Amino acid sequence: MIQAVTDSALSQLELDELLKELLERVRELLVVDTATVLLHDRSAGYLTVVAAVGIEEEVRQGVRIQVGRGFAGSIAQSHKPRILDHVDATTVVNPLLWERGLRALLGVPLMAAGQLVGVLHVGTVAQRAFTGTDIDLLQVVADRIALAVQAQLTSGERAAATALQRSLLPSRLPDQGELEFAARYVPGADNRVGGDWYDVFPLPGDRWGIVMGDVVGHGLPAAVIMGRLRSALRAYALLHVDDPAEVLTKLDRKVSHFEPGAMATVAYAVTSPGEDSFCLSVAGHPPPVLARPGQPACLVEAPADVLLGSGFARPRHNTVVAFPPGSVLCLYTDGLVERRSRPLDDGFARLRDAVDVRSPEAACVRIMAALSTWEWPEDDVALLVARHRPAHPRPGAPTV
Q: What is the mean pLDDT of the segment spanning 53-76?
């Protein structure tokens, strides 16, 4: 019986085909009339029927059960098998089950890596006393289903997150006038896409907005929040062209109100090349690195205000920093400098040593070479380098 539900040939099937085939085999092996798989939506707290044999209408009607309610909901809440020998409106939420005359139900949780994936249950129209052997067999099937579902969800989320992030990161950075840019993005050690993002956009008055942000978390949820923050920041930037701190203040309110539980760090700068400076506000983000001609690179000294979504309404600050021609500004996410086995100061020191006043593209090559060969980062890495072009290059001087 166990061999029938762990057949290696099943691994060649798509998920919907796999679920249908496993449910058919379970129905035959356990001699039951119905078999149903419900998957857990963690964000909504519901179970949704995705596959069923015997009462296929459950899928077509989009049956949804709240965790903690009824038969399937109680299994999802307790993470334990359950046998039910009395099926009616007092014990089962889904009316299709008692309307079809089911009299006994057996259900087990779908678990993967300690996380609830869903519920699998079977039922009979005849009175039935399910045994411990029945529970064990159904749990074997549930474990197989849980792994298959988790693998597909992980793969699907990763693909969706990657596509979303690529669509939101600038496909081409501006290279005109007195400013030039280059950037890098590299997923972490496990290739999970996260909520790291960078952005460069024009503002009224010959100004440019320069952003580096990092949403706490990984995967599709972080990428979705990242997309929302990116769009909101651009909108607020148009309202407060000369005030990065006010932009981040409004963005913080937006996160706290509409994205409960979400948090992000952001460094936002506005520069006007004609003024030879930039105005910076930092929300819990690592400090940018600045290199000026004839000077060693240094961390920009600016107040590290609280991150977005922290729940603390604290004043935010602007810092005006000299950015003369030939200077290079480097913004990055913490994955570039953080390593679990090394002090953070070592990462900052390596980054300072790697930043100089060469072209942004050459600077990116040098920075990534210095930091990526040090130890492979566990977190995502985003890097954005901006240079205020030198005012008067010497005739015949090589371009760096």
A: 88
What is the side-by-side order of every strand in the sheet holding 328-332? 175-176, 179-186, 381-388, 328-332, 289-291, 298-299
Which residues, 6+ apart, have CB-to-CB distance to 66 below 8 Å?
A: 45, 46, 47, 73, 93
Res 377: pLDDT: 64
Q: Give the DSSP letter string of 278-347.
A: EEEEEESPPPPEEE-TTS--EE----EEPPBTSS-------EEEE--TT-EEEEE-GGGT-BTTB-HHHH
- AA identity, residue 89: A
- Measured CA angle at 296 (ends 290, 301), to 5 deg: 40
Q: Name the pTM for this structure.
A: 0.68
Q: What is d(CA 283, CA 251) in angstroms, rounded to the nearest whole number?
A: 10
Amino acid at 336: L
271-294 per-position pLDDT tens digit: 987 789 999 999 999 999 999 999
Alpha carbon distance 123, 36 (integer Å):
9
Q: How far is CA 314 from CA 97, 253, 311, in A?
A: 54, 11, 9
Count other Cβ atoms within 10 Å, centred on residue 257. 9
